[in-house]
């Protein structure tokens, strides 16, 4: 009988026939589940929840940012309200500081009436009204007198140098240098009211320049030409700080010897609270922002927008027309709690930074809704100012389109972080061998997380940040137990700990036969892991110590404990190389990456690039920004190793990932 090639290949040979019964028990039984049931797991549900949240957020934000886009056609054919100020109008801005909460226009027309209580601190001219106009800034130093210590030329020059961004901030974030600080002498009555637990008010007016204008700024009473901004109280009162919050930063080397304390620049000037416990503390707002909304579209008369003032005019033909003035407001969304300065009887100078910029309608609505949401969180859920500071920074320092991208990236970051966490737990739960894995990296990661949590608590971070960090430490403790088999040892005269799993691996490798390849790989894993960690620690240790000494000489700290935690936190950022590089050395020595949890690494790899986006839009230490790009380099090396080293799909985690 003649058989075809396919029949000959399908027919079992004598060798295959004898091996088949032996291999049959080794084959895994395929799951009987199939169809829709196989896709209903936690990963799928998390992905669906993320997609639904993004769709819901996009729908609601689009309605808030542009109400005209969702109006029915019936509204567009009725009476329309047109803008009173056309696009690219020329504007002037005038800002004054006064002891009065209200400044009538006739009062501001006579300088002899207001010179003892009010002072004009800023006039800015020739500003175009459009969304492309760059912001105008000025940095002021308000002084009680010309002889004030903080108002000297040397003090102003030192403050200007301290405000300059660093090299990395200019290169990575594009921050620009600030201009020279100007000195403003306040009237004696204003400074006396400030030191008597009173407040000062910031008044500002935006004027559209026309040929018929006789008065400008705060002296103009024509509401169609000049828009008044609601006054701002520059002092707020709250409970006095306690504990570490009441301390001021100082040069710690002064505690050792005055000569050592003179090394480096002096500690930054900052007033402290000098009253008694239980009293209210006065805090100064060191910055203020004046905004005008650049909106030029026609609006239906039936649609009302809060803050948009309308006027009724007569057209040349006698018909009635409606116009609206551009909304103006004082923007305090970026004023976080760490920027406030304590006001006491010893203060003779205070900083004040002013900013003016036209904003789009979408940006205005976004800030207004965010402010309402933040106030609701404080009132309904009891959130403190510190809890919402990061949200304030994100909204104030990020453009609208980039903020939308950041919100989308946040959802993706949360999704991939959940998937990475699930894969990490599954990997260590089912792990049977440490072959090719760096156990020391797991231990170093636990120590790093403990240091970061202590630093967060010392800095007064909110519970929204500290509690997840504490939960991550508990999970990392479980991973350390799975990786090392750590157990308390009471057999010795004093309590000790043992790493039973590592000891078992080392003992097995020591007593293994010469032809036992598995035991040789275990021994090589322990040896390379130990040597790589040792060499990296010896090479990076001097850099960490040098940076700690540098911060001790040049920076001010609350105390020795804070300096030690800061130095250890910087060591954690540097220690990321110690955490990741031993695994690279193990991969190179074994010429294999089959032992790595590649699903986990892929999720972490995507999250690393999302962290790069956060590094540009969220305020964080420069060392943390550098660590984000450092992780990119390490993960790219991981991918390169996966490309050049062959992957045995029949063993290790790589085969399991491929099967799933």
Describe this structure in words.
Helix 19 (598-617) runs antiparallel to helix 20 (622-644). The chain is built from 21 helices and 18 strands. The strands form five sheets. It has a five-stranded mixed beta sheet with strand order 5-4-16-10-14. Strands 11-1-13-12 form a four-stranded mixed beta sheet, with no helix packed on it. Helix content is 47%, strand content 16%. The longest helix has 38 residues, at 517-554. By secondary structure, it is of the alpha+beta class. The protein is globular, with a radius of gyration of 33 Å. Residues 16-26 have a biased composition (Basic and acidic residues). Keywords: Membrane, Transmembrane, Transmembrane helix. Belongs to the CLPTM1 family. It holds the Pfam family CLPTM1. This is Cleft lip and palate transmembrane protein 1.
Give the helix/strand layout:
Elements (H helix, E strand, L loop, with lengths): L4 H6 L3 H10 L18 H24 L14 E4 L6 E9 L12 H4 L3 E11 L7 E8 L9 H10 L4 H7 L8 E4 L2 H8 L5 E8 L17 E8 L1 E5 L13 H4 L1 H4 L18 E5 L2 E7 L5 E2 L9 E5 L5 E5 L3 E4 L9 E2 L6 E11 L1 H21 L7 H9 L2 H30 L9 H20 L4 H22 L1 E4 L6 E4 H11 L6 H38 L5 H15 L1 H15 L7 H20 L4 H23 L7 H8 L1
Name a few traits of the molecule.
660 residues; alpha+beta; five-stranded mixed β-sheet; four-stranded mixed β-sheet; 18 strands; globular; disordered N terminus
């Amino acid at each position: 009988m003649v058989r075809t090639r396919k029949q000959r290949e399908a027919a079992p040979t004598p060798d295959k026939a004898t091996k088949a019964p032996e291999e049959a028990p080794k084959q895994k039984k395929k799951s009987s589940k199939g169809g829709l049931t196989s896709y209903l797991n936690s990963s799928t549900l998390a992905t669906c929840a993320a997609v639904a949240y993004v769709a819901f957020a996009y729908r609601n934000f689009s309605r808030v940012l542009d109400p005209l886009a969702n109006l029915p056609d019936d509204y567009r054919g009725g009476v329309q309200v047109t803008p009173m100020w056309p696009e690219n109008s020329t504007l002037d801005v005038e800002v004054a500081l006064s002891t009065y909460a209200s400044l009538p226009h006739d009062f501001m027309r006579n300088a002899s009436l207001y010179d003892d209580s009010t002072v004009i601190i800023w006039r800015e001219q020739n500003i175009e009204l459009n969304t492309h106009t760059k912001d105008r800034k000025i940095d002021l130093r308000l002084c009680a007198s010309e002889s004030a210590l903080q108002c000297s030329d040397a003090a102003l020059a030192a403050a200007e140098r301290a405000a300059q961004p660093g090299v990395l901030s200019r290169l990575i974030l594009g921050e620009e240098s600030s201009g020279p600080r100007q000195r403003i002498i306040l009237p004696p009555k204003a400074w006396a009211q400030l030191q008597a637990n009173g407040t000062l008010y910031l008044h500002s007016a935006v004027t559209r320049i026309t040929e018929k204008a006789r008065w400008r700024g705060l002296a103009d009473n024509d509401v169609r030409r000049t828009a008044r901004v609601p006054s701002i109280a520059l002092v707020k009162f709250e409970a006095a700080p306690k504990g570490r919050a009441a301390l001021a930063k100082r040069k710690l080397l002064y505690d050792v010897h005055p000569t050592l304390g003179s090394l480096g620049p002096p500690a930054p000037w900052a007033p402290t609270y000098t009253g008694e416990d239980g009293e209210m503390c006065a805090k100064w707002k060191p910055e203020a922002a004046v905004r005008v909304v650049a909106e030029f579209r026609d609006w239906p008369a039936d649609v009302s927008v809060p803050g948009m003032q309308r006027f009724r005019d007569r057209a040349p033909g006698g018909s009635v027309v409606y116009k609206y003035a551009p909304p103006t407001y004082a923007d305090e969304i970026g004023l976080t709690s760490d920027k406030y300065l304590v006001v006491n009887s010893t203060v003779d100078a205070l900083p004040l930074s002013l900013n003016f910029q036209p904003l789009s309608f979408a940006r205005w609505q976004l800030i207004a809704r965010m402010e309402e949401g933040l106030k609701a969180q404080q009132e309904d859920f009891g959130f403190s100012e510190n809890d919402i500071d990061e949200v304030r920074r994100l909204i104030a320092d990020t453009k609208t389109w980039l903020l939308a991208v950041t919100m989308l990236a946040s959802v993706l970051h949360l999704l991939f972080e959940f998937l990475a966490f699930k894969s990490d737990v599954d990997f260590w739960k089912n792990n049977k061998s440490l072959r090719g894995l760096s156990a020391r990296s797991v231990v170093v990661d636990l120590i790093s997380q403990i240091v970061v949590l202590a630093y967060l608590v010392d800095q007064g971070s909110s519970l929204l940040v500290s509690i997840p960090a504490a939960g991550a430490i508990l999970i990392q403790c479980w991973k350390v137990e799975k990786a090392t088999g750590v157990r308390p040892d009471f057999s010795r005269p004093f309590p000790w700990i043992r790493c039973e799993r590592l000891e078992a691996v080392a003992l097995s490798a020591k007593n293994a036969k010469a032809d036992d390849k598995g035991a040789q790989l275990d021994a090589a894993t322990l040896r390379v892991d130990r040597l790589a960690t040792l060499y990296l620690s010896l090479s990076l240790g001097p850099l960490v110590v040098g940076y700690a000494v540098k911060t001790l000489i040049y920076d001010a700290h609350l105390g020795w404990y804070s300096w030690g935690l800061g130095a250890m936190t910087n060591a954690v950022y540097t220690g990321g190389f110690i955490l990741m590089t031993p695994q690279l050395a193990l991969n190179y020595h074994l010429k294999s990456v089959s032992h790595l949890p590649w699903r986990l690494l892929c999720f972490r790899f995507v999250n690393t690039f999302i962290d790069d986006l956060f590094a540009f839009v969220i305020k964080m230490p420069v060392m943390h920004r550098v660590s984000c790009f450092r992780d990119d380099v390490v993960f790219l090396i991981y991918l390169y190793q996966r490309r050049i080293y062959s992957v045995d799909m029949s063993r290790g985690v790589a085969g399991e990932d491929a099967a799933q």
